[in-house]
């Protein structure tokens, strides 16, 4: 179900009642009454036809029950594939084979593109803070053939540099073309790659490198500057390779401060390999390709061991659900490649022969924080057809559009609401109405400018990393004119588990199982979720099949806790998420075992469920709900949306010196709490699920602060530890 959003001010129940008279009044006010009369037939016809066709819709079966081994439960497979999909084509059983074969198939196609930095400027804001602004040029492309040659050269260079093929290499950098080149190069010599988030703190970085005994570290200059201070703690590191198109002086700095490391630039290693070519040492399907360190929500990060077969299977499966994906597609890459979601997405693009243009979250649009005024953002220049996003980014796109519409007001606001409502009726009633003549009219009048934010050519979006709200999903469907494939997966399942299909118009679900795996629900009696529940079976989500990884590196106890092997040899991963299967075989995630707290009077409260409802408030940038089992109510820490709260304060005549002071104002707390109450009622939360007290926190939660993961999920333990005093006060 789609919940109401105070932030969007789009009351769908009201908008569905908009009639033809509203169209006439809009255009009459705009002096184009006659033009409207000419298009009434074009509008009315698809509306009437959609009503006729609506009664003929049949439930499409997307997943079907299947008998599998292991613990008893309710298991489902993809309805279109009776057998698990493991490879995109015969022979592509490893990442090395897939890369080489794709580069031969698409040799002359553009593969990796990067924008040239023309200039960097420092801009001082009104409060004295300095921000870097970039003047970026056009994308400069290299073909599949050129990238393959570079990867081969880098692989040979690693050997000549002295890297022992029996040891591991790590990549510690933001997403960029060289990241993927180094990644593929390692597989040419069957070197396992350790991936580490660029936002990980020093302790986690040291733990990850030492635990896996990394001898070669590949990084950008920003990360390189951190390493000198950590040299005494990194016990196995011998080689450092840095990307040399930024601040190349960093290399000499590290060399001077540590005599234990051999420091080389990326181009030097490529040149070394080009002059000293080595024969490849290719992996097999069961070899470990990647040890991916997740930032995790508790404690030190865990290293998930992914085989070559795991990554290839996920890519092959996702290929089957993206409509008509191929060499004409252009993909905008900006999410962290050290996260399994982006790694899987780029592997899919490699398999399809698509072009990958690199950008960043800070240069994504024309108004992004690091874009110099007058310079186009990455999306405007690249004009991607495919794009991946986490819900937080899509929420920001929606919020930005709604804010602009609200600022315009008047005729623009009214016209937008009518256009939105008509497209909503069309999408929820029949795809015919969504893409007919009326849709073309609204695209020209209203939505064309909105779509230009992301380049104007988006035809499909992939979303993952966290649950996507129904409001935002519909907003992107309508305003961007593109279906969203909402994925569900974990690092432990190599991103592969479930994926909603392009023609599924429902919201709040994550689709049927990908054809690379089975999904089973196992009863959790203690939490009250069982496979015999009516009207739908419910239970813990357990994933089995080709995409399930090999376990945690050097952590047999944790591996044994959540990984199981059944009597047929199939690996199963116990996710800790609670789901239910709809009659058409689509999965919906409804809870998480770790997020459920039993209150003093015996009521169970799902923290994630409450947060998902309350984050829709226009005042909420981020929120963590906390429940003490020795009390009968919950409380919340709220990071307010600064501009929105300050806007309210200005209109209300609230005096304050700075934002932290505003967050302490009783009036501000009351305004935010009333907004939360409104969202809670809309979501039909019980009284004990509504935070009785809140604390407004002025500073945002970022991966760099260690309070959220790279996928922007809450790190509850870290948040509870940092704000222990604030939480204690809320219960006094």
From TrEMBL:
Domain AMP-dependent synthetase/ligase: 134-553
GO molecular function, one term: long-chain fatty acid-CoA ligase activity
GO biological process entries: phenylpropanoid metabolic process
Pathway recorded for this protein: Phytoalexin biosynthesis; 3,4',5-trihydroxystilbene biosynthesis; 3,4',5-trihydroxystilbene from trans-4-coumarate: step 1/2
Any one cellular-component term (Gene Ontology): endoplasmic reticulum
Keyword check for Electron transport: no
SUPFAM superfamilies noted in UniProt: Acetyl-CoA synthetase-like
Reaction catalysis annotation: a long-chain fatty acid + ATP + CoA = a long-chain fatty acyl-CoA + AMP + diphosphate
Keywords carried by this UniProt record: Membrane, Phenylpropanoid metabolism, Transmembrane, Transmembrane helix
Pfam families: AMP-binding (PF00501)
Residue spans crossing the bilayer: 33-53
Name of this protein: Long chain acyl-CoA synthetase 8
Organism name: Sesamum indicum
Gene transcribed to yield this protein: LOC105167408
